Structures are given as C-alpha cells and as structure tokens.
Amino acid sequence: MTFEKTPGWLDWYADPSKPAFTPPPGSVDAHCHVFGPGRLFPFAPERKYTPCDASRDQLFSLRDHLGFARNVIVQATCHGADNRAMVDALKASGGRARGIATVKRSISDGELRGLHEAGVRGVRFNFVRRLVDFTPKDELMEIASRIAPLGWHVVIYFEAADLPELVDFFTALPTTVVVDHMGRPDVAKPVDGPEFGLFLKFMREHANVWSKVSCPERLSVSGPKALDGQRAAYDDVVPFARTIVETFPDRVLWGTDWPHPNLKDHMPDDGLLVDFIPRIAPTPELQRKLLVDNPMRLYWPEERTPTS
Ligand SMILES: O=C(O)/C=C(\CC(=O)C(=O)O)C(=O)O
Q1: Residue 238: how many CA atoms within 13 Å on its side-chain side?
Q2: What CATH number did the domain enclosing 86 receive?
Q3: How many domains does the chain have?
Q4: Does the pTM of the predicted model rise above 0.90?
Q5: For atom 8 of ligand 1, which residue has the closest CA?
C-alpha cells in the first residue's frame, strides 16, 4: 500500500552530526518511534496524520551514530492500536529495544502476554486532541488494571493546560506513570509560575510519577534551533527540563523523539539535539541516572547489577 504524506510534512534529518556530548556507556533513547514502512505496516485508517516512513533499521543506525545502546519505541498514533511495526522492531533489536503499546479493552490476555514476550513494558494513553479521539476514562482504567500485574507502566501524553482536569485520573492509576515531554509546558510562561508549579507538585506528591525531559524542539518558542552546528539550542526549554532533572533525578528519562512527528517549523539535527543533554543534566552523575540507571530500572530491571 502506498500513502501520501500529510501536506507540509517534515521528514527526519537525513545526515545528523556527531554529538559533541558522549552519552555514558549503555545509554537509552527512551522515546522514539517507528513509522511503517507503510508498504509493510500500513498506517491506521483512524490516524490524524500520515508520516514519512521511518523504519526500524533507520532507527537502529541513528542509535549507533548518536552513541546510544538501546531504544524504547513508543507506539505512534498513526499506527493506532496496530502494534505490528513496533513489535517487529523490538523483535529485530536483539533485546536492545523495549516498547510501549497502544491497546484497546478488547485485547485478550494471550495478546498481552505476546506483547510482553516481544519486549513491551507499558501502554500509552494519549490526551492530545489533535492526535487521537477521546477514549473513555473507564476503558483506560480497565486497561491499566489489566497491565499492572505484568509489571508494566502507563505513559501519558497531554498538554499542560489540560493537567488540572486530568490530574485526578492520573493519580488514580495503579502503576508507575511516565509523562511525555514534561507535560508539554508553555515555556513562554515563567518556570516558577503556577502552571509549571502544578506539574512539579504532581511529581512531588506522587512518587510513582516520572517525566521524560524530551522534545525541546517541540516546546521551544524562541530557539535557537538545533541546526547549522548550533550546539546550545532551545535555551527557553533548559530551565524547565533542568528543574525536573535536578528535583527528581531518579524519575527522569530522555529520548530523541525521532522521527519527530508533526513538527511544523523545522526538523532538528539529532546530533545537535543530543548536545542539549548536558545543559539539563549538568553533572556526570545526573547524566548517568537520566540516560542509564533510570531507564534500565524501568525497562530492563532484570539486567541491573546490585550497584546500579
Ligand atoms: O512524538 C511524540 O511524542 C509526539 C507527537 C506524536 C505522537 O505522540 C504520536 O503520534 O503518537 C506529537 O506531539 O505530534
């Protein structure tokens, strides 16, 4: 099947730079996607966008180029609840990728076990209206209670302005809860203002809540962009991400978000994006927690040594 990309679609950056920052050995890119390829894994009829292809082999070659060891592949909404492309990538990764699935309440226990064997360790609940149609909260809660015994967690994606309305549902979830992209703060607002304050309170008062400090390219208003050799990009996002890393160093994850769906302004050079990491996690200890210890604890707990 051939697909026509959404008009204005920006393809992933073809020839990324080598980062100046060297990630510690064993680093995990804990948020990335695969798209298709559409001829093998057709995009879902209910999708809100049609992307370019972004295959597992292209993802794995980016992983190696950037100096990462592992990936966490998050089911993208353009594949709906058809997890085949993501699962195919997990199976081809030689144990170096884990996955986050999208499932419906109709999924059987056997199918859940199959996903677990392939390397899935969580489900994603998406509340961003431009990406998905609303799933009733009772259905989501039922899914959460079924995946909890597998040791899985729930990844949530929402916009900062929607947190007040969603917070009661989030705090009722029975698993670890991982927030995508810091809950998408409006970085034009003050880092010590009420909106981001609510997010910090949410994390402070709920020790099961983690955050990905990812996607500065999606959140930044004033740049500069991670392009043309700019190794100090997205200044306006730094205080938000750094506050989270320094306040909750054991509950943060980082990911490229490759292939960066739905960006409208520019496509970042992923090598320069990696150079954002030492600006938000300034010490080797914070970097090791963010890139190795935390994702290993969540996604490969069986591989942890007693000291890590
Ligand atoms: O890549 C992301 O995390 C963010 C997305 C896309 C997405 O979540 C999806 O398609 O599932 C976005 O904001 O458009």
Answers
A1: 18
A2: 3.20.20.140
A3: 1
A4: yes
A5: 76
